[in-house]
Structures are given as C-alpha cells and as structure tokens.
Amino acid sequence: MTGAKLRLPLRALLAVLAGALMISGCSSPPTNPQAKPADPVAKVSFEPGAGAQRVNPAAPISASVQRGEFDSIELRNSDGDSVEGKLAADGQSWKATEALGYGKSYSWSGRATGDDGKQVEVRGEFRTVNPDKTNHATINPRDDAVVGVAMPISIKFDEPVEDRAAVQRALRVRSSTPVEGSWAWLNDEQVDYRPKDYWPANTHVAVEADLYGLDLGGGSYGQADLTTDFDIGRAQIVKADVRTHQMAVVRDGKQVASYAASYGKEDDPGRNTPNGTYMIMAKHPVEIMDNPEYHYRNVRKTWAARFSNHGEFIHENQDNIAALGKVNNTHGCINLSAADAKAYFDSALIGDPVEVVGSASEMEPRYDVYDWLLDWDQWKAKSAL
C-alpha cells in the first residue's frame, strides 16, 4: 500500500530492546594495556637506616620485615667479611651478635617473601664512625683476684678523658653484699670506685665498663669494653699508732698480732709517717730503696709491703733493731724485725687498709692512690655525675 507506515507490534519492539540490552550487559570492559601490577606487600627496614653515616659500631644492628619473612639475609663489611647474627624463629627479624668495626662500610643482601608470595630484594648500606683516635683503658683488680677490704676498682686510660660523665654512665658495679659506693676521678685519666666504708669481707664483685664505641669527647672513642670479677678476702686492718711504737694487726674484728715497730722521725716533717688511711699497694720480698735527699741509695730491705707512693713501706730493718718498740727514727717507713716483717708480709693482701694515727703531719691526697685519704663527701664530689 502506497505511503503506508510500517508498524511493529508493541510486544515485538520490547523483545528487540531486551535483546540489545542483553548483548550489552554480557560484553567485557575494554582492557588497559598500561595497568600496573600490584606492588609486593613485604616491607624491609633497617636499624640504623639505609644510608646512615657515623654509626656507633656498638649500637644495636638489626633488620626486620613486615608482612613477610626473610628467605636469606646477610650483612658484610667493605672487606667482604660477614657479620655474625641471628635470625628470629618467625623469620621476620635479624640482629647482629657481634660489634662492628670503626670506620667501615656495611651492606645488606638477601631476599624476603611477602604474604602475597612476591619476593623483595634486601639492600641497604651504612657506615660506622671513624674516630680521630681511640683511647685504651685497663681495669684493676683483675679477674679472680682476692684482695683486701680497702681495694678500689680502678680504670686507667692512656689519654685524658673529656666526657667523664659519659664514661661513668657506662660503668656498672655489682656486689654479692650490697654497698653504698661511688666513682671518683683522681685525675683526667683515672676513675676509681670505692664503697663508703670498707668492703664487707668475702664479697664477690663484678664490674662492666661498656667503653667500646663510646664517644669520650674531643674526637676520641673507647677502644674496648672491660670486665672483671674478683673477691674480697678476710677483713684485715693494720692499726698503726705511731705513739705506741707498735703495729697491731686486726683480722675479722680481732687483734691477731702486735709487732714492735719504729715509725718516721717525729721532729722532722720530711721523715714523718703521716696520718691517713692507706692500703697495701704492692708486695716484694726484696726492695731496693733510694732517698737522695737523705743521702742513701741502693739500700736492700726484705719483706716490703708498699702502702703509699709517697714512699712508705712496711719492711724489715734488722739494722734498726734497737729502736723497734722504743724510738721512732725511720725516714717514714714502718720498720719491723725480719721475723715480724715476714709474718706480716705473708698475711697481707693487696688492698688491705693501713690506718696511721698519732703522727705530727697529714698525708696530702695527691700521691697516685689516695682513695681513702678523702672523706665520703670529698670522694663523692669528685664524681662527674
């Protein structure tokens, strides 16, 4: 029929539209060839951080991984030497078990796998501090020593220490019998520890000095850590009253000996045995003595126990036997007979106190070992803390 319009039934039109929608809904979205794969979830971190400079070689060194575990991990220095360390049981952290060296570069290597199954490389570098100089120190008493109740703990450095407070913070003293004690700087190269009163007899003492990696100031660092474990022996004290012409020995609270003695000449200050609390510093079966001021050299005496670096000893002097127990006429030493000097010598320990009283003069606290010449407040005032 000419000019007639084509009419579709309504039901047919809806069917055509529904088919078109179904075709559109089942089609896939277009792909993006530029899409980036997801990053691995494992994250590795270091202490110190990668790229760190002037790291303290004694500081804790570690690596850890979040959302994963280490498959392998290693830390090497610039010489290719591997640093000893321990991987945690869960595989998520590693710690160095040895101190590092001064002035060295270190690099990490290894791999970690995340909980997404993807691996990441372990990489990072850092460098330790390179000191201008290192300062060597020694500690006394040594391991396993048995010493007297006046024995101080002494740490001596080869060079002056600028940051004394830093040193003291690195020192620890433990004793089997608790004591009140303090460190004191006798000079800029020596720090000593002593209790307020004498050590209790038969006490065990342990000392730790964490000096390696410690900044001592002035570009100097500690060369090595120090430790010592020693024991205090019985409590033996020399009671030396110059007015009595006797030298008494008190052991564990009881007098066990009294020896006829001669002390320093009383009317000559240069020959006094000065008042003060000292300690036995050294023992020698034979001592060669010199005193040019009083015109004697190469004098041989036996059973000599030094108790002051001013020059005082307890020793044998058979040549002065007539004065023992009667007259004070020595050059400052305590003279005994040969038999008595040997008996005392055999009983003495390094660190035994020697208490001198009744003299016309006092000992100036400056002759190397003067720990017990200071009262407790004076001693504490020499602490850097």
TrEMBL record:
One Pfam entry name: YkuD
UniProt keyword Signal, yes or no: yes
UniProt keyword list: Acyltransferase, Cell shape, Cell wall biogenesis/degradation, Peptidoglycan synthesis, Signal, Transferase
Chain ranges of the L,D-TPase catalytic domain: 236-357
Domain of life: Bacteria
Keyword Acyltransferase: yes
Pathway terms, separated by semicolons: Cell wall biogenesis; peptidoglycan biosynthesis
Location of the active site: H315, C333
Signal peptide: 1-28
Record protein name field: Ig-like domain-containing protein
Native organism: Saccharopolyspora halophila
